[in-house]
Each structure stands twice: as structure tokens, then as C-alpha cells.
Write a structure and sequence with these properties.
It is a multi-pass membrane protein. This protein has 20 helices and ten strands. By secondary structure, the chain is of the alpha/beta class. The chain folds into two domains: 312 residues, ABC transporter type 1, transmembrane domain (ABC transporter transmembrane region fold, Up-down Bundle); 171 residues, 3-Layer(aba) Sandwich (Rossmann fold). The protein has a six-stranded mixed beta sheet. Strand 7, helix 17 and strand 8 form a beta-alpha-beta unit. The longest helix is centred in the middle third of the chain and has 53 residues. The chain is elongated and about 125 Å long. The structure holds adenosine-5'-triphosphate.
């Protein structure tokens, strides 16, 4: 964490320096006050004759010091904020980019709610801690040491009172810290839970409404919320009885100082003004110790949050970058040695795969297949057989457990991730739509795409008609999560976004399931005609989606069961025949 504050070292140095200035002004006041009382009012060194001029001069001096203290306080606040806010900003940015580099399984492991809490609340806690360390801690330290020194310099006998009350207050502080510390870790976990429930409910609000589960979800939210509040209350309760106890000790100390002061005034070793100053110094010292309570509370929360932030920052991406930058130069042109090669060649070589969370359960088993550049490959199989898992290995959403996936003859793990993913465009069944215009949603796949290219991609994705029917056409803003679009419309935008990328490999992972058969047939026909050199992989449930593919791959429980054209598979694959018959019976195949 230190490296984040180093960048703003000047603010981190100036904030405490100005705070030292403010606290020093506070320490001067009681001393001036005692002189005003002893010399200005009581005239102790002038046979009881007061000095009004001295009172005015010292009074003005006190006002001046208050002013200086105020300015120092403001400057300290400004610099602490500069350091704290920028620190938080940088940590948040790094957290975000680290989370972006996570594999799906790493995101699952932390949980989305917890990651949100870490980027928001945890960063705020650490930011508060930094600001407090630069200001509150310095102030407390100066008032404690300075107050103690000033009081003892008045008369050592006052030290007896502090000697008794200080350990008592310290005991209270230590007791509080020991009790409260573990609760802060629990508090952040409860906040994670609350965020998880919130996030699930906001994202899944339609399902909740459709199943009339609002009451159930309200109870689930209420339970998480109650748990959070109860943990918070535990801490506050602890604080609420610790503070009065410490106040009682403080007040007893003041009474004791007055008593010790009275004795000393009687025997002439201190003056009444010095007793007044001693009372203020004692209050400053004991208040400083009491404030340690808050400081440690703040530090404790900051440490807990800091640990949670470091857990994310120290979690190295599972999917590591390779060195190979691809066959294209920076300007996009093919390198000389590869100019004659057609890109988009994919080889699965004895690939087996298990999800990192269930390593013993192989989802893909010894799968081998060579997909040639420009080929259209259909992937079919019953639900859960591993179709999506298989295609996820191509852009390295996950890494193979054994075997290799090669693109253009190079292991995908050897590619730089950017180079690899630049070669692939993928459209998923669940289309992620952003709350931007339709045009921005499509050109998300290629940021610099001009209007014509966007419209062409929309045409390819059979989306032109519905876009033109929207009031503002391509400039229509889509609501968050694409709720203002139908399922099929969202899929078409996601397909257009994939098409516009102009990648060597186009993967449709059940991406056209919400399209009617005619639209879907037009989509794949147009793609075949317009992009003959692009390798197309179509994962589907319906035979109609893949019937015209060059080859169809049948997957059965993670194994390659059969591969061939529609006609060939009808002859050789019993699984394909079963699917064909069941779908033909349902009238799902457009012949
Ligand atoms: N992130 C994950 N962690 C652990 N197991 C998973 C994960 N994703 C999928 N699985 C499991 O892997 C298996 C294959 O899932 P996959 O999504 O690849 O199937 P599919 O053939 O694409 O199914 P569908 O046709 O229903 O989309 C399933 O048993 C599923 O439960």
C-alpha cells in the first residue's frame, strides 16, 4: 500500500507538518492563559496589582495563535485530502484492472458482491485511515507528548494524577481494541453478503417478479441487512459504554488536579494560573488517549480493508500472457513469413478439461479436431455435454487441463492475450448489452468503426429492420441490461458486435437461439457468403442452426462422438439421428 502514497509524498509530508503547527498552537494557549491569570489579573509579581495592558497583549496573542492554528488546520486538511483521495483513486483503478484480468473462476471465488465491496467500501476505509494517520494520529501524538511535557514542567506533582489515570484509560482503550478488532472483519463480510443479495436481486428482478418471490427476497435482504446492523451495533454498544467510563476517569483526574493544585498553591509551589493550565493540559493528554480509541478503531477497519484489498491485488491472473504477438504487425498487415498462410486454423490436440473448482470432474475428455481456415463448424450435443466449455478454451477463458489448443499452429497459451483475443470474436447466448446507443453497442466490437461498417454489421446480424423501427434508429439508447430490447434483438446486437470485429475466428455460442428459424438461416447464409475466409464455429441446440455447416461435431459427455456433414451424420451418428428425429417431429427444421 505504501507505494500508492509515495506518489503523493509531498502532500503526505505537508499534512502532518501543518498538523504539528495546529497542535502546537493548542499547547501554547493554556500557558498564555496562566500568565494572564497570574500576572495580568492577580498581579502575583507586582504585589497583587494586575496589568490590564498585559491582559490585552496576551489576549491578542492568543487570538493570533488561534488564527495561525486554524490556518494550519485547514492546510493540513487540504493536503491530507489530496493524499487520501488520490491514494484511494489509484488503489481503486488498480483493483479494477486486476479484477478485469481475473479468469472466470477467480471472479467466482471472490464473489461479485465481495469484489464490489472491496472496490468501494474497503477502499473508502483505507482512504479514511490514510487521512486519519496524516492528521488525527499526528494531532493526538503531539497533544499527548506536548501536553504531558508542559504539565510536568509546571509542577512534577501533577504527574501523580496522570500516572494513575493514564493506565486506567489505556486499559479501556486496549480492552476496546481487543473486543472490536475481530468484529471489523465480520462487518466487511456482512457487507459482502448484503452486496451479493442486492446485486442478485437487481440483476434478477424480472425473475423475482415473475415468480412473485418479492417477499422471500425481502426477507433474504432483511436477514443480511439485520446481520450487518447487529454487527455494527455490537461495535457501537462497546463504544457507548467505553466512552462514559473513560469520561468519568477524565473528570476524576481534573478534580484530582484541582486538589493537588490547591495543596501546591497553599504551600506556594504553583500559582493559580498554573493550576488552570495544568487542568487544560491534563484534559488534552487524557483526551488524546481517549481519541486513540477512535484512531485504533479507524486503523483496525483500515487494516482489515487493506488486507482484503491486497488479497485482490496479490491474486495473480490465472491466465498468464504468452510472448507471441501474432502473425500481424502493428499496422495489421501480415508478417512476411506468414503472408501466404490463411488465418483461422484451429487444432484441438488431445484436449481434456476440468473446471478449476472441480478438478476431478473432466468436462472435456481427450478431444481432438482440426478446424480449417474458412470452415463453418457446427457443434451439437445434449445440454451440459461441454459445448460452451470447449469453445471457451479457444480465447483462453479457461486453460486446458491437458493437451493443446493451437491457433494458426501456435499454442493459445503462447500468444499474448490481446493478440489471441484480437483473432477471435465471440457472441454468447446471454447477450451483454450496455446502456449506450445501439450504434455504440455494435461498435463496441470495433471502436473506430464508421457508420457504414456499423450498418453493414447490423445488416449481417439481421438487425436492420428492428433498428430502423426504433424512434431514434441506430442512435437509440438501450436501457441498462438491454431491458428495452427483446431477447432476439439483444442477440442480434451481440452478433453484430461480433461480426463487426472482422476477426479470423467467429464463435457463436448458442448465440442465435432466440432468433426464429428463417432469420437464423438468413444470418448463417449471409455470413457464409460475405465472410468465406472467416472460420465460423456455431454452438447450437437445433439442427436447423448447423445443418448447412461444412462439418458438424457431435459431443457426447465431453467426448467427440461423431463428425461429418449433415448427410453423413444422418447415416453414421445415432445421436444425430435421434436429435434429427425429435426436432423434425417438432417441426423445427426448415428444409
Ligand atoms: N464455471 C463452471 N464451474 C464448474 N462447472 C461448470 C462451470 N460451467 C459449466 N460447468 C459444468 O460443465 C458442464 C458443461 O457445461 P457447458 O456449459 O460446457 O455445457 P453445454 O453443452 O454448453 O450446455 P448447454 O447446451 O446447456 O449450454 C456442465 O455439467 C456444467 O455444470
Amino acid at each position: 500500500m505504501i507505494k500508492y502514497i509515495k506518489k503523493y509524498w509531498w502532500a503526505a509530508v505537508l499534512a502532518p507538518l501543518f498538523m504539528i503547527g495546529e497542535a502546537s498552537m493548542d499547547l501554547l494557549q493554556p500557558r498564555l492563559m496562566s500568565i494572564i491569570v497570574d500576572e495580568g489579573v492577580l498581579g502575583l509579581s507586582n504585589n497583587g496589582v494586575g496589568d490590564l495592558g498585559l491582559v490585552i497583549r496576551l489576549g491578542l496573542m492568543m487570538i493570533f495563535f488561534v488564527f495561525i492554528g486554524g490556518v494550519c488546520g485547514i492546510m493540513s486538511g487540504i493536503f491530507a485530502n489530496i493524499a487520501g483521495q488520490n491514494f484511494g483513486n489509484d488503489v481503486r483503478k488498480d483493483l479494477f484492472s486486476r479484477i478485469m484480468s481475473f479468469s472466470f473462476s477467480q471472479t467466482d471465488e471472490f464473489s461479485t458482491g465481495s469484489l464490489i465491496t472491496r472496490v468501494t467500501n474497503d477502499v473508502t476505509q483505507v482512504q479514511n485511515f490514510v487521512q486519519m494517520a496524516l492528521r488525527g494520529f499526528v494531532r493526538t501524538f503531539i497533544l499527548f507528548i506536548g501536553g504531558l511535557f508542559c504539565m510536568l514542567s509546571l509542577n512534577l506533582s501533577f504527574g501523580v494524577v496522570i500516572g494513575i489515570s493514564l493506565p486506567l484509560i489505556l486499559l479501556c482503550v486496549i480492552y476496546f481494541i481487543a473486543k472490536a478488532n475481530p468484529k471489523f472483519t465480520i462487518l466487511q463480510k456482512k457487507l459482502d453478503n448484503l452486496n451479493n443479495v442486492m446485486q442478485e436481486n437487481v440483476a434478477g428482478s424480472r425473475v423475482v417478479k415473475a415468480y412473485v418471490r418479492e417477499d422471500y427476497e425481502k426477507k433474504r435482504f432483511g436477514k443480511s441487512n439485520d446481520e450487518l446492523v447487529n454487527t455494527q451495533l455490537d461495535v457501537l454498544l462497546l463504544l457507548s459504554y467505553m466512552t462514559p467510563i473513560m469520561n468519568v476517569i477524565l473528570n476524576f483526574s481534573v478534580v484530582a488536579i484541582i486538589k493537588v493544585g490547591q495543596i501546591n498553591v497553599m504551600n506556594g509551589s504553583v500559582t493559580p494560573g498554573e493550576v488552570m493550565a495544568a487542568i487544560t493540559y491534563a484534559s488534552q493528554v487524557l483526551n488524546a488517549v481517549m481519541r486513540m480509541n477512535m484512531i485504533f478503531q479507524n486503523a483496525s477497519r483500515g487494516m482489515t480493508s487493506g488486507k482484503r484489498i491486497l488479497e485482490v491485488l496479490n491474486c495473480l491472473p490465472e491466465i498468464k500472457d504468452g510472448d507471441f504477438e501474432g502473425f500481424k504487425g502493428d499496422d495489421g498487415s501480415a508478417r512476411d513469413e506468414e503472408r501466404d498462410k490463411k488465418p483461422g486454423d484451429i487444432i484441438f490436440e488431445n484436449v481434456s478439461f476440468a473446471y478449476p473448482t472441480q478438478k476431478e470432474d473432466l468436462i472435456i475428455k481427450d478431444f481432438s479436431l482440426h478446424i480449417r481456415p474458412g470452415e463453418t463448424i457446427g457443434i451439437l450435443g445434449e445440454t451440459g455435454c461441454g459445448k460452451s466449455s470447449l469453445v471457451n478454451l479457444i480465447p483462453r477463458f479457461y486453460d486446458v487441463s491437458s493437451g493443446r489448443v493451437l491457433i494458426d499452429g501456435v499454442d493459445v497459451r503462447d500468444y499474448k492475450l490481446k493478440a489471441l483475443r484480437d483473432k477471435i470474436a465471440i457472441a454468447l447466448q446471454k447477450s451483454e448489452i450496455f446502456s449506450e446507443t445501439i450504434r455504440e453497442n455494435i461498435s463496441w466490437g470495433k471502436k473506430d468503426a464508421d457508420y457504414d461498417r456499423v450498418m453493414h454489421a447490423a445488416k449481417m446480424a439481421q438487425a436492420l429492420e428492428f433498428i430502423e423501427n426504433k424512434p431514434e434508429g441506430i442512435g437509440t439508447v438501450v436501457t441498462q441490461g438491454g431491458t428495452s430490447l427483446s431477447g432476439g434483438q439483444k442477440q442480434r446486437l451481440a452478433i453484430a458486435r461480433a461480426v463487426i470485429k472482422g476477426a479470423d475466428i467467429l464463435i457463436f455460442d448458442d448465440a442465435s437461439s432466440a432468433l426464429d428459424l428463417k432469420t437464423e438461416a438468413n444470418l448463417y447464409k449471409d455470413l457464409k457468403e460475405e465472410y468465406p475466409n472467416t472460420t465460423k464455429i456455431i454452438v447450437a441446440q437445433r439442427i436447423a442452426s448447423v445443418k448447412d455447416a461444412d462439418r458438424i461435431v457431435i459431443i457426447d459427455e465431453g467426448k467427440l462422438s461423431a463428425v461429418g456433414s449433415h448427410e453423413e451424420l444422418l447415416k453414421i451418428s445415432s445421436i444425430y439421428q435421434d436429435i434429427y428425429n425429435s426436432q423434425l417431429g417438432g417441426g423445427q427444421i426448415a428444409e
